Amino acid sequence: MESEELMSSLPKEKGWMYSYLYKFQGFWYGAKHLQGAIKCQKQFQAQNSDVLLITSPKSGTTWLKAIIFTLVNRTRYPVEKNHPLLNKNPHDLVPFLEANLYDNQIQDQSSFRLFAAHVPYHSLPKTVHDSACKIIYLCRNPKDTFVSLWHFSNNLKPDKTGTNSLEDAFDLFCRGVSPCGPFWDHVLDYWKEFKENSERILFLRYEDMKEEPGVHLRRLAQFLGCPFLAVEEETGMVEEILKLCGFDNLSKLEINRTGKLANGVENKAFFRRGEVGDWKNLLPISMVKTIDQITEQKFSGVGLVL
Ligand code: A3P
């Protein structure tokens, strides 16, 4: 396979979950993810009406998928009826561009298409750059993202391969060697594009969504051209969507406690604590200082605080 030949020529480092991460176009990927990203670069035909939800892994992808799916389908699937989120994990409702194209799972939809991706900005397929499709980018504080990724990767590691020590994982993360890392460069590239073209890209922070979810849900609705009507506001639609998609609700559903994705990952792996500042329970002060210094240095002068 062409992409396998390419992979053998790429720099590689010890992976978090599986054997290696490979450096492609300046960012690190697991083998299967990379094959999907390459295939998607070659084959994905973006349409102007497409909407892409983009995140660095563990920044709140599952939550964003649930919210956007519910928002844009609120007429087709009213929140109070038998909603698809009650029987399906958000990852089964909004496909990942890389994973699903690679597995040939994407079905042709004739209307509005919603995809998610972790791909860095400059590695998005050319047809995405050439089209007018919209991008919603969600990022998260690097300390919480790191802690979430550390737990997740240890959870998913195949049996008998042990857990990643916090120190080893921290070293990899800070050197940029994490899935779709360097984390800071991933965020920065989307931030810069958002600053230049806010009609096309909406930039959100997990912490802001937690603090003022209603404000940001309304922003999302406006951005996607489906603002809440007066009657929807009056009947509490915003609150209903937030409740349905909230951590407390989703994490307790049977499907998310016992179900699995097609790739075998358990749905419950995507719901851990869902809080802001959980890093305080794990990271020693030395790690906090190191990561804060990197963040300060990387984001210096760009007007972004995480
Ligand atoms: P924690 O590990 O800090 O709890 P992703 O979806 O990108 O894989 O990110 C997973 C993180 O988002 C996990 O963070 C998870 O608990 C949190 N999360 C999942 N669903 C959420 C929700 N509905 N609201 C808020 N956070 C959520």
Automatic annotation (TrEMBL):
Entry GO MF terms: sulfotransferase activity
Stretches assigned to the Sulfotransferase domain: 49-302
Superkingdom: Eukaryota
A Pfam family hit: Sulfotransfer_1
UniProt EC number: 2.8.2.-
Keywords, alphabetical: Transferase
Keyword hit for Transferase: yes
SUPFAM superfamilies: P-loop containing nucleoside triphosphate hydrolases
InterPro entries, sorted: P-loop_NTPase, Sulfotransferase_dom
Main enzyme class: transferase
Family: Belongs to the sulfotransferase 1 family.
Name of protein: Sulfotransferase
Native source organism of the sequence: Olea europaea subsp. europaea
Classification lineage: Eukaryota, Viridiplantae, Streptophyta, Embryophyta, Tracheophyta
